[in-house]
């Protein structure tokens, strides 16, 4: 998972770029508390999508189930958010 920082809300989770394949849109999502931002500007207050489905704010598709996924480098680059990326975390097994 490529991350843009540590969640300013829970101060524990990594903020990853999540892609909803139904609409091909991206959000920033905390992998711990599910705080969400619509851009890499994480200074704004987060939104908290409805649990447990975490609906995409653009198409209402589920952000937790396939085909939604953590963005790859190319998807982040295409979105224009590559300058916000701080690193990559290893995949959990």
Q: Which spans have pLDDT < 50 for at least 5 consecutive residues?
A: none
What percent strand?
A: 25-35%
Which structural category do the helix and sheet elements fall into?
Answer: mainly beta
Shape: globular
Distance between the termini: 12 Å
How many domain modules?
1
> What kind of sheet is the major sheet?
6 strands, antiparallel
Mean pLDDT: 92
Tell me the number of helical segments per DSSP (H or I, 4 or more residues long).
Answer: 1
- Per DSSP E runs of 2 or more residues, the count of β-strands stands at 6
Helix content: under 10%
Element order: H for helix, E for strand: EEEEEHE
Radius of gyration: 12 Å
Task: Set out the fold topology.
Layout: E1 2-6, E2 14-20, E3 25-30, E4 36-37, E5 69-70, H1 73-79, E6 87-88
Antiparallel strand pairs: 1-2, 1-6, 2-3, 2-5, 3-4
3D architecture notes:
With 93 residues, the protein is mostly beta strands. The longest helix has 7 residues, at 73-79. The mean pLDDT is 92. It starts with a strand and ends in a 5-residue tail after the last strand. The protein has one domain (2-49, 67-88). Strands 1, 2, 3, 4, 5 and 6 form a six-stranded antiparallel β-sheet that branches. It contains one helix and six strands; from the N terminus they run βββββαβ.
